[in-house]
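so my prof wants the structure for this chain in the tokens format not the other one, which i didnt know existed until like an hour ago. anyway here's the sequence
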Amino acid sequence: MLRIGFRAHDFGSFDTADALGKCVAETKNPALIQLALNKVIPSSRPWEEWDEEYISSITQDLKKHGVSVAIVGCYINPIHPDEAVRRKEIERFRKSLSLASAFGCPYIGTETGTANPSGDYSIATSDPANIEIFKESLTEMLDEAEKDNAYVAIEAVSRNHSISSPERMRKILDTFKTDRLKVIFDPVNLIPYTGIPEEDGVPLQVPSEEAERRFVREILDIYGDRIAAIHCKDYYLDPNTGLKVGDIPALTGIFRWKAFAEELHARSIDVPWLLENHDPRTSKQTAETLEKF
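here's what i got, hopefully its the right format
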């Protein structure tokens, strides 16, 4: 059976970890979550003030309701063009790594950054110089992970971020062969903005099963053995622009999640699936449907 969990802040904002745990448990118990602490509990201490005792108190409150952390969300911009800001971002990530044992989760996750200070798209992001900056940032993060018996889990995003394709991810994984580097695989994030191309290079509004299967298999061939978690949402191509709309709940778009699950089963890839952009009112039904795949 698939292990289905949730992105905690999709449930809303909470005053306490106890309230968050209670809410998640009403949907699924036991449950797994991706926890971005300051995002889901805005009143929580700023990250600079975190320590073992404080983070342990958070996770203990969650565990009372059968909720555990599958990924610690610490989504920084490791290629921020302002070096001072970038240094602060890396320190924030290192802080989360240092508290992995208190979170009860060794996997600290981030995307790979953009050259736009606002976090939005910039054509400069794809410049090779930014890949080198990312490597420098990643080196520091991995050094910290080694000390803390933790793992850096990076997530590629098509077009927007420095690691924007399976091929770029492969180069990073080939460069950093350490087991401390893992991948969060969001198939929708990696689908090109114009859709999955068919064998002749042209995308259809709904890709053929063959094209989608090829897309998934090529990625899993590259780093299927490095995956820490799956992010699960859905997409469609806008009929007017032909561009991907990739932020809708799983099972409401055109991605074939059952076929995806079958491919993972065939490769014995057993990692948590974390729903993104889901509607808390329907998340229980979505989770139960996915668990049957």
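also thought this was worth mentioning. The chain is about 40% helix and 15% strand.
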